[in-house]
Amino acid sequence: MMRSPIGQPLARDAMAYVLAGGRGSRLAELTDNRAKPAVYFGGKTRIIDFALSNAINSGIRRIGVATQYKAHSLIRHMQRAWNFMRPERNESFDILPASQRISEMLWYEGTADAVFQNIDIIAVHGPKYMVILAGDHVYKMDYELMLQQHVNSGADVTVGCLVVPRMEATGFGVMHVDKDDRITAFVEKPADPPGIPGQEDMALASMGIYVFETEFLFEQLRRDADDPNSKRDFGGDIIPYIVKHGKAQAHRFTNSCIRAAEEIEEYWRDVGTVDAYFEANLDLTDTVPKLDMYDRDWPIWSDAVVAAPAKFVHDEEGRRGMAISSLISNDCIVSGSTARRSLLFTGVKMGSFSSVDEAVILPYCNIGRKARLSRVIIDSGVRIPEGLVVGEDPVLDGRRFRRTENGVCLITKPMIDRLGQ
User: Fold this and answer.
1) For residue 188, what pLDDT is reported?
2) Cβ contacts of residue 53 below 8 Å, gap of 6+?
3) Where in the numbering of this chain does the Nucleotidyl transferase domain appear (predicted)?
4) Exposure string over 15-47, b if 16+ CB within 10 A, otherwise e
5) Which residues 6+ apart lie within 8 Å of 245 measured at CB?
């Protein structure tokens, strides 16, 4: 293992910087009041917890999070869940809202600008390496292994990448590489993505993860800030410039992906649409899930909510509290009702004779008696009226709620309020 001069892993000399300002508009009403990284996922976590947990589990002890769009929910979550970092242990956790520190007229103009505006704060911590992360993907990865490759290759930047079918890469930044995975071109969302040498039907898609030496990154950010034609974006400006004028190296996710014994694939998801979000959550209900949330060797840290255990009550025919192939969180009460292949987040209450099937129910929802719901996402705090039926009449569902192409209904409080008008 490559180590720093003082004998520690490279991660101890690194800072993780999470870009968490994105709205995630394709998640529709789920991001009306919260940024995409703050969206709930997997029964008890938020999406951003995956990038942050990867950093902690990789040994990185300095973390910065840049926020912008509707950041209150995200900031509150980080204050509650991530307040265990201690300066006396040479640890730090900085929440960095767009605060117009450089100019009173400007918020963060792009991903690169979100780092540039906080150069002075980063410099105080003195990291030798910067690991730039997107805060809105679900995956498990050891960044220490990526840092090792970066140092061993002598690259100016190392870009985390996925191997995907070539024509599925049109929505990504795509890397053209040589036989040694040195990046020779970096193109955003190409109509005809370049293939991988020896695997022409596959492409290397950017994960939005970059490793730099800190001083080199600062130089590039200052140069970019002086360019009036730049959009201040890593994928659009910084990386293509380095590809042209320096050495950019690709790091394949397969080389640092964390998999528990039962996980058969390299799991990475951009849960950026309602359907993708729904399917990724339901993945967790499988007998052998594609993503193992029970892996104690690589835990996904989150807010340790102080709440009572889940409770199942009533045991009579037609009124039996039970859950089948489901994840049930703390403070849930399944009262004479049934949950099948569903996720009940903290504090969900299900009334007697109700049922949910393939449902993602966010915190503190109340499911009324005799309600019957299938293929739904219910936003936090929603009270489902007694007897409501969703998932059986596509035309009616489409009039009342947001119904996706795959037949998933997203239900929010304003939609329920309109039912009574």
Assistant:
1) 86
2) 140, 298, 299, 300, 301
3) 17-286
4) bbbbbbbbebebbbbbbeebbbbbbbbbbbbbb
5) none
What is the rounded CA–CA span in Å between residue 347 and residue 307? 8
The count of C-alpha atoms lying within 13 angstroms of the C-alpha of 305, restricted to the half-sphere facing its C-beta, is 18
pLDDT at 247: 98
d(CA 175, CA 159): 9
Residue 2 has pLDDT above 50, yes or no: no
405 is in an annotated binding site: no
Q: Is 173 annotated as a binding residue?
A: yes
Q: What is the pTM of this model?
A: 0.94
Report strand pairing: 327-328 vs 383-384: unpaired
Residue 174 has which token pair? 């795509």
Residue partners of 324: CB distance under 8 A and separation at least 6: 338, 339, 340, 341
Beta bridge partners of 66: 19, 96
**Helices 72-81 and 48-58, axial angle in degrees (round to 10):** 30
Alpha-carbon gap, residue 96 to 420, rounded angstroms: 42
Q: Summarize pLDDT for 283-301 with one digit per residue, the tens.
A: 999 998 999 888 899 999 9
* pLDDT tens figures, 338-357: 999 999 999 999 999 999 99
Confidence of residue 264 (pLDDT cuts 50, 70, 90): confident
Joined tokens for residue 237:
């400006």
**According to the annotation, is 370 in a ligand binding site?**
no
Give the domains, in start order, of the chain with CATH numbers. 10-285 (3.90.550.10), 311-420 (2.160.10.10)
Instruction: Give me 267's structure tokens.
Output: 């799991």
Query: Is residue 277 a known part of a binding site?
Result: no
- Strands in 273-321 per DSSP E: 311-313, 315-316, 319-320
Could you tell me whether strands 319-320 and 315-316 are parallel, antiparallel, or unpaired per DSSP bridges?
antiparallel
Distance CA(397)–CA(392), nearest Å, equals 8
Residue 294 assigned ligand-binding role? no
298: number of Cβ within 10 Å: 16
- Measured between its terminal Cα atoms, the distance across the chain in Å is 65
pLDDT at residue 368, rounded to an integer = 98
pLDDT confidence tier of residue 7, bands split at 50, 70 and 90: low
> What does the pLDDT read at residue 5?
46
